[in-house]
Write a sequence for this structure.
């Protein structure tokens, strides 16, 4: 197969609490290159003046404190209002996608990696799956996900459920995915699953050679 960006690209996504970031960190341990869309979004929302202006227009001057994004203020609004959440996504997604495509071109040109992982919560929602060769979805039992988020973010069950409801249903994500990792076990079990996919992506990359 011909890779879309001259290098094998694999998107990793999943609902809140599923463990997609943990999966990506393990891929990094094995030597993979990972682009974190959420980190790029935060960077752009704090450093891109055009984006900052648009966010202030939607959410008000309270959306920034001393030039830094007021994350809790924004989160409280977008998890309570579908309209405001979609508005934010409509201005942030294009900027993030543009940056990721630029980074992919650069990485492919350097020739240091056989494949690239792109971690993003909204791969399907933003339509970015069309830019990737494969999408791997990380999922877990709902109660396990809820417990993880309560422990991690020190929030209430209702707050977690509100955030989960704001995301695309995990069953739909699994149906849209090319591959799935179920992360219901311990870290050693997860590492074995990631190791399998790391080897698989290496083989796909080498056997195709980008052609």
């Amino acid at each position: 197969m011909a890779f879309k960006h001259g290098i094998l690209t694999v998107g990793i996504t999943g609902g809140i609490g599923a463990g997609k970031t943990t999966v990506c960190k393990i891929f990094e341990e094995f030597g993979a290159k990972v682009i974190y869309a959420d980190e790029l979004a935060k960077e752009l929302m704090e450093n891109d003046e055009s984006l900052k202006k648009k966010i202030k227009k939607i959410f008000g001057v309270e959306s920034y404190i001393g030039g830094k994004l007021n994350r809790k203020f924004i989160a409280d609004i977008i998890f309570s209002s579908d309209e405001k959440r979609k508005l934010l996504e409509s201005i942030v997604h294009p900027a993030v996608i543009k940056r990721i495509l630029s980074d992919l071109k650069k990485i492919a040109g350097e020739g240091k990696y056989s494949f690239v992982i792109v971690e993003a919560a909204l791969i399907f929602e933003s339509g970015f799956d069309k830019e990737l060769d494969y999408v791997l979805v990380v999922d877990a039992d709902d109660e396990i996900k809820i417990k993880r988020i309560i422990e991690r973010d020190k929030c209430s069950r209702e707050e977690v459920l509100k955030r989960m409801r704001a995301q695309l249903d995990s069953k739909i994500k699994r149906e849209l995915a090319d591959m799935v990792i179920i992360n219901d076990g311990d870290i050693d079990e997860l590492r074995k699953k990631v190791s399998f996919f790391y080897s698989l992506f290496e083989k796909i990359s080498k056997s195709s050679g980008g052609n």
